């Protein structure tokens, strides 16, 4: 088996930039309520956000050898996604590797393991999303695959799939679906802005969400004034 695949198709930077303006929740809803990664994956700082194609990595628990290899081969704008068996009791990534990623112009680090040096990473300005924060060190022993499909956060992720992360979590978008998802996300954004405007103008939830007949069918009883 070839461990490291260096060639895969990425979306255009222009398409990624158009997708990036939408929130993870909007994208998740717009593409049919799919693609949301497990809610354990959160940013180390709520102000962090990113959008970019995935470079997928499988690491053994408590081992960051292949993460370092992945950083070497990743390209500017890529998101390094590390599947490490959801083992949280390890600080597989910190400020040194964060500096290496920042210097290469990589978009973000996402892992189902733990990270450390979080204050330094926040100051560095590299978006880091993880399942845990842990100071425990790691080894560099085990060879694994890079840019093969991985199971991560209850989703299958392929190299070149787009990941969007923000304060609410991370969602994956298939590369071949990016234009449809951009269109559907814009449509949802427009509809929600219109709805919020109608609320500000005095509309009510039952009226604007068309709940009158739904509630009647369910037998909702309201005490008379």
Automatic annotation (TrEMBL):
Annotated keywords: Lyase
Cofactor(s) demanded: a divalent metal cation
Enzyme Commission number: 4.1.1.112, 4.1.3.17
Record's catalysed reaction(s): 4-hydroxy-4-methyl-2-oxoglutarate = 2 pyruvate; oxaloacetate + H(+) = pyruvate + CO2
Transmembrane region(s): none
Classification via InterPro entries: RraA/RraA-like, RraA/RraA-like_sf
Enzyme class: lyase
CDD domains named among the record's database cross-references: RraA_family
GO MF, any single term: 4-hydroxy-4-methyl-2-oxoglutarate aldolase activity
Pfam families xrefs: RraA-like
Domain of life (superkingdom): Bacteria
Subunit composition and interactions: Homotrimer.
Family statement drawn from the similarity comment of this UniProt entry: Belongs to the class II aldolase/RraA-like family.
Entry function: Catalyzes the aldol cleavage of 4-hydroxy-4-methyl-2-oxoglutarate (HMG) into 2 molecules of pyruvate. Also contains a secondary oxaloacetate (OAA) decarboxylase activity due to the common pyruvate enolate transition state formed following C-C bond cleavage in the retro-aldol and decarboxylation reactions.
The protein, known as: Putative 4-hydroxy-4-methyl-2-oxoglutarate aldolase
Native organism: Arthrobacter stackebrandtii
